Every structure is written in structure tokens, then in C-alpha cells.
Amino acid sequence: MTESSSGPAAVPEPRMRRPGFGSNILPLALITAAVLGFLMLTRENFATAQNLNSILFGVSIEFLAIVGFTYVMVMREIDLSVGSVFALTGTMTGALLVAGWGFWPAAALALAVAGFIGFLNGFLVVRFNINSLMLTIGTMLMVRGLANVLANNLGGQTYPRAFRQLARTNVFDVRLTVVVMVVLVLLAWGFQRRSTLFRKMCFIGENVKSATVHGIQVGRIKILAFMASAMTAGLAGIFTASRITSADVRMGLGLEFVMVTAAIIGGASLYGGKGDLRGSALGLLLLAAVLNGMIMYDVEPVFQQFVIGLLLIVTVAFDTIMNRRRG
Amino acid sequence: MSIRKISFLRVQRLEQESLTLGVALLMAVALALLSPAFLDANNLASLQTSIAPNLIVALGMMTLFMIGRFDLSVGAVMGISGIAAAMALDAGAPMPLGIAAGLAAGLAIGAFNGFMVAYLGINHLIVTLGVLYMTRGIIEVIMVGAKLAGFTSFPASFSALGQWSFGGISAIFVFALLLCLCAELFLRLTFPGRSLLFLGGNPQAAEATGLNRRRIEFWAFVLSGGLAALAGVLMTARIGMANRYMGEGLEMQIFIACLVGGGSIGGGKGSYVGALVGVLFIALLTNAFNLLAVPSEWQAVVIGGVLVLVVTVDAILVLRKAGLGAPSSG
């Protein structure tokens, strides 16, 4: 099963005329549907409305976090601090609410902090030409530490009721985040198809020197993408904090690797120049289905970590073999 | 960096190493003044216990740094080799076989890393991070249902291996220092040693002169895995238990140690003495956390902050080097 799910990474053609659009969405959707169908047919407790709802709900929250992340990857950078920023923003919003703040100021302040972390990542990467993999591991540790400071201070207190209700907000019987995900996927479709900004981003990812020569403001776009990545991760963190109802030091642990794997399955590449938010969403759904399926098949939960690591290596291996720059 | 004329340190390429050593010594003096417990025999013993395995792991990591690679799976490798050795001993294997089992686990993981990076050309950070995850997953699977302390009963000879000491100086510590000395001599006096830095500094030129980059990379990863395994086995013998926590988060400490000790992410720099100095710095930093009772979550903040700082400084130095006209390796 783990092998079959690595398949989609092998599908994209090495170079597309219109990067980021219409790449490997259809095969990926078919594979995801096949995995879901397989689980539905073989495990009767998979196809329950409750289980499917919870998968979709989980994916829709993670999806928020992958929005900025995907576009950072398009520009041949990476942001491994998303998991920590996710935790910090969620915990911080909760902590401020416990301290008696209103929801909007608390969320705004937490998101501003996330934006600042993103700015810091982007600024350091752009100004000093730092390898973003390395830098964001550093910020990942730092921000994780700060999130844990907050979480430990809260000592497992539950958040105020109003905040806990946020993630359960429904729009026409569908979770708010699911609606947001659908809207964002549609917007991303248009963005990737029509916007010059997205073309510029792909160009930066393909060849940063030539992009600079052609007058694209590489630095500004990169910093904005890092900020977007941190802020969308923060938004997801706020919803997650509301969903899990109390401070938890394990929140968002390892999320960054799920993001990398899902984004690459969805058509992004460590070598930049492409990426597709719709694909990233499908990648998240596929991973969630595989992990959920493992639980359905009574695979030891501790084995999940192994599978996430394996999927990461396998997808990156495919990515490398398919997209490596020659010469 | 303040040395302008060509000094001994510059000739020996030990500028950053001596700077870090200076900072580490300052920290040691400050700690001795601030905390009376620092010079306590117990604390000095625990410092040795933390420096020795870290140094052994850092020797492997520094080798990778010289050729522009690194290995984030070392902490997990350390953990799993300790467990592998403990399991073999638990099953009644004689001591050499137990040690061999631990080393074999590390060498195998190192070979996997090396194969993926050197022969398939996959990003080393992703490969070793993925392996870190997989190995931690395997450790969890092995330790399901085990007590938190893990394996604790070992033959007396195995425990004696770890606890052997003369006059307050642990044998493992001396062994690690000797290993470091040998590695430094290898680096400075032999052709394969010199070629490591050459390869890292200018891969194209090195390959053009006939160095086999892939093979060197592969064996460097095997070396890193093997040394991490050695450290894991020795630590298991030293502390008398093999559990799922051994080596957790170690990779970042070693990584930082190598960077502050003169290594560079870009490759072509570094020395084994630098690894020693860097490990000393990190050990003193962690020791300071413990002596001054800093909460563990703040320790993560500081470690992350040091990493960001070190990576930024490293990038500035690389930029400056590129500004002088040296070819960039990107």
C-alpha cells in the first residue's frame, strides 16, 4: 500500500509547457479515489459518515497550512518551520483567550507573530542567500520551544467555550474549513491559470538568476511567500487549537514532513518551478487516507512515523529522478 | 577573525576553531564562577559522559561536512544501535557479538543513506530526515510494551566496558579523544584525508583529478552511521540501559557543534579538532542549562537560536568568499 501511494510522484512529465496547471491532477485524483474505494470496500468501518467526515475535516485544516507552503516550494525554497508556527499560533491564541482577550485581537496578534516569523525566514533567506532548509530547521526549533513554553504555562487548561466552537462552525451542515478549502482550491485554480504572479513564481523557481535579470522582484516575492506560508500555517493552527480544545505540546509535530510529502505528491518539486495547490490538497487527502487505512487495518499506530518517513524518502526520490537538473 | 597577518592559526586553518575554543573556555570560567556545582566531581564526570559519545558522532558528521553533506539520522542511529546491542545481549549472545550487532545496525543505515545520496543523488537533508523518522518509528515498534527504562540487564563485562575509568577520567572519554587525534592526523598527513577537503571545496576540480566523489560520499555516510552506532553501544554500556530516548535531538546538537567548530554547510572546511571544540561548546551550553536550571523548552529556543545565528554567519562567510571571486558551489 505504501508503495502504490508513491506512484503519483512518478506521473508528471519532466517539463511542462504550462507549469503548475493541468499537470498530474487526473492520475492523482484517480489514485486517491482508488485508495479510498479500496478502503471502503475492504473495511466496513471506513465508509462511515463519521470517519469520512473526520478525515475530510482533518485534511481541510492541514490544507490551510499547505497553501503558502506550496507556493514557497514553487520558488525552490522550503519552509520547515510550518509545524512549529502552526503550534505557536494556535497555542498563543488559546493562551491569550484564557488570559481574557477577545477572540479577534488574540487571533490577529497570533497571526501577526506568525507573519513576523515568516518575514524573518524570508528576509534571512533573501538577504544572506541562506539555504532555506537549514534556516527553517533553526526557526522550527526556536518556535517549537516558544510554543512549548506557552503550552506548559497553560498546563493543559481547556480553551474558552467560544473558541472551542470555532472549528465546529458549520456552513449549511458542512464544516467551515471544508468550505474554505473548496473555495481556496477554486481560487488557486484561477490563480495558477491566469495570474502573472504565479508565472513569475514558477520562473523564479526555474531560474532565479534569469528571473532577477528580467526584473522580477525576487526578494520581495520570496519574502511575501514565506510570510504567506507562516500565516496560513498560523490560521490552520488556530483552527486546530480550537479543535483539540486544549494546549498540547505535540501539536503540529512532524507536520512539515507531511506537508513536503503531500506537496511533492501533488506536483511540486524540491527543484522548484512547479507546484499545484489542487494537487497538494489531493496529496494531503491521499496521505490521510493511507494513515487512516493503516489504523483500519490495525497496523501499530507507532508504525505511522515509519511510514511517513518512508513516504517522504520515496516521493523525494521520485522527485529527484524525474526533475533533477541536468548538467 | 581579528587575525590579519598570516599567523600560525591561519596557516593551520584553525581560526574559527580557536575562536570557538575561546568562547567555550570563557563559558567554563563563567560557569565555574556562577555555579559552585560546576567543578564538582560528579558534574565533571557527567560532562565527560556527554562529551565522549557526542565527539564520536561529531567525527563522522564533520567528515560529511567537509565534503558538503551532513547526516541528521545520527541520533536515531545511536538509539537503535544501543537497542540492537542490548537485544543481542539479552538473547544471550556473547559480548563481541552484541557489540557487532549494534555496529551492524548503524553501518547498514549509513550505507542506505550513502546509497541514496551518493548514487541516486537525492537531497541529503531529506534522506537523512526521512531515515531519522523511519528509525525512530522502528525503535517505537521494537519498544512497544517495554518499560520506559527499556533494556537494563547486561552482562557484567559489558557494563564494565562503559564504566571503566582511571582516577575520575572515563575510558570512553579518553578513547574518544584518541579517536579524534587519529582522525586529525589522518586529515592532515594522508592523501585520502586531504582529498576530503579538496572534494568539498571544489567538487568539479576534485573529480577532474580522478577522485571518485560518489564512492567517497558513500563511505563517509557509512562512517557516520558506524561512528554513531559505536557511540550508541558505548553509551548503552555506560548508562546501563537502552531505551527509546537515547540520542533524541542529538542530531541538531552535533550539527551545531560541527558548524561552530569550523565546518560549513557548503563544504571544503572543517577539522576534527574543530569537532572536538564544537562538542565542548555544546556540552558546556547544555551543562549551563542544567546547572542554572533553565526549563527544557527554553533550551530548545536557545539551541534553535544558535542554529539560526550559526547558519546566518556561515552564509555571510560564504557570500564574502563568493564576493572574492571563488566559484560558488550552488
From TrEMBL, chain A:
InterPro entries recorded: ABC_transp_permease
Listed transmembrane segments: 21-42, 54-74, 81-101, 107-126, 133-151, 171-191, 223-241, 253-272, 279-297, 303-322
UniProt KW keywords: Cell membrane, Membrane, Transmembrane, Transmembrane helix
Chief site of localization: membrane
Molecular functions per Gene Ontology: transmembrane transporter activity
Keyword Membrane included in the entry's annotation: yes
Membrane topology: Multi-pass membrane protein
Localization per record: Cell membrane
The name this protein goes by in its record: Ribose transport system permease protein
Native source organism of the sequence: Cereibacter changlensis
TrEMBL record, chain B:
Alphabetized UniProt keyword annotations: Cell inner membrane, Cell membrane, Membrane, Transmembrane, Transmembrane helix, Transport
Membrane topology term: Multi-pass membrane protein
Keyword Protein biosynthesis: no
A Pfam family: BPD_transp_2
An example Gene Ontology molecular-function term: transmembrane transporter activity
Transmembrane annotation, as ranges: 21-39, 51-67, 74-93, 99-126, 164-187, 218-239, 272-292, 298-319
Organism: Cereibacter changlensis JA139
GO cellular component: plasma membrane
Location(s), subcellular: Cell membrane
The protein's name in its UniProt record: ABC transporter permease
Keyword DNA-binding: no
